[in-house]
């Protein structure tokens, strides 16, 4: 799925209108109907109670008028309010005319804002993607009024006052919605933690936006759903053998953190790799051989940390990082690995911190490596970000400069590519915010890369399957009860869902 800017969204609307030969007011009717249907599927008129709809002067307000008409006809107790303005959009005017006799548009005034009983349903149709500057004056006062009411706010397309694709001053008035129901595609703003307080839970409803426009639109932002991944994970070959599926090497673990190595090991084994060798310090030998007999243990001479790089020739991909100690010897191992490897690397956790501690090491990073920092680790690598938008700029620059793929982990993990694309993941849940989840991701990525998948497919599939495994696991454990080891049990089913079936 594409993520379009506000300007592109307007162009997409126009392209749809032209392609289908429909009027803009017909497209508005379609969009607003999709919103109404979404609401009707969740609330009866009784459950909704008092329903107050707040409309701005543009097409977002026009949507609000259609929704008011439709909910009124569906038996909801509706009141509809409009911001006074010098001009209204043409489709707003048309829909004002279409309001049924029993439903008058009431004009909002600063000294007479309507009372909102606690628990009321509020539909926020003040502003959408056409917002051109932060709200002020009466519009800001209305937003403040809505936010203070203890109402259930559902925003149409965008929470009013929020820009779709760029940051805004810290104190901007913005509606704090419980749900945001957006048309066709998510907006960039929805995917960033700083906006969660306004967007609430977001949903998209289809409105038949031009597929051709979506396919051809410029821009490098993607929302990763199963459709985008179709065809990227081949089915296993009927006559495949373990040599077909690569030999991965994991360098992981130190005294007290052999568990991290074990989690990465289990995840790697569950992600289809043909063979796996694990380098841990000697203290990890018995643990690894007992808990993961399928993996080969290649223990380091040092007891507590990794001190020597093994011979690299057997391996088709190498993952390094989970549970490492930052001992000087391990730093040298990392440096030697960066210099000597001829195969792709997956770099995680303290290996990332070591990269940063010696900036010269970053220059040695082999092209097409995959890095998996969480935001704190990324900040150490690329510097502090002013806000979530700035962090994305830093991510893009970092990936281009170092010709690497960087998986910036979080609720919507964002993959940056060497060619400037940003891919936001759609799977996963807060239950995965638990120690060891990241180690599991390293194991998955190393396994996919060892199977000779290209780096982009590896990162997209791996991040998606990791989140999907979390979603499947949480059905059994609940979010709070989820631990990283649970993820490994569901990697197989998650990958199976993504596997391309044989064509008949
Ligand atoms: N164009 C189309 O065909 C469709 C548009 N749709 C809806 O239309 C919305 C976009 O409509 P518009 O482009 O009319 O934009 P909006 O309705 O979001 O807002 C634009 C209006 O607000 C004013 N405005 C902008 N910033 C302001 C500020 N800070 N303070 C006060 N006034 C401000 C503008 O002058 C203009 O009158 C979408 O979010 C969606 O809800 C949907 O109906 C789908 C179809
Ligand atoms: N709220 C969330 N929603 C979805 N995924 C999450 C959420 N919180 C964490 N995750 C995922 O869990 C993993 C945590 O990784 P990381 O921070 O490296 O943990 P650790 O170092 O403990 O292994 C990441 O892949 C991240 O995307
Ligand atoms: K809105």
Automatic annotation (TrEMBL):
Residues reported in the UniProt entry to bind K(+):
60, 124, 160
Q: What is its EC number?
A: 4.2.1.136, 5.1.99.6
Q: Which reaction does it catalyse?
A: (6R)-NADHX = (6S)-NADHX; (6S)-NADPHX + ADP = AMP + phosphate + NADPH + H(+); (6S)-NADHX + ADP = AMP + phosphate + NADH + H(+); (6R)-NADPHX = (6S)-NADPHX
What is the cofactor note? Binds 1 potassium ion per subunit.
Keywords (alphabetical) are:
ATP-binding, Isomerase, Lyase, Metal-binding, Multifunctional enzyme, NAD, NADP, Nucleotide-binding, Potassium
Annotated ranges, domain YjeF N-terminal: 9-215
Cofactor(s) required, per the database record: K(+); Mg(2+)
Give residue ranges for domain YjeF C-terminal: 225-498
Q: Where does (6S)-NADPHX bind?
A: 59-63, 128-134, 157, 260, 323, 374, 439
Q: Where does AMP bind?
A: 409-413, 438
Main function = Catalyzes the dehydration of the S-form of NAD(P)HX at the expense of ADP, which is converted to AMP. Together with NAD(P)HX epimerase, which catalyzes the epimerization of the S- and R-forms, the enzyme allows the repair of both epimers of NAD(P)HX, a damaged form of NAD(P)H that is a result of enzymatic or heat-dependent hydration.
> By what name is this protein known?
Bifunctional NAD(P)H-hydrate repair enzyme
The organism named in the record is: Hymenobacter cellulosivorans
Gene label: nnrD
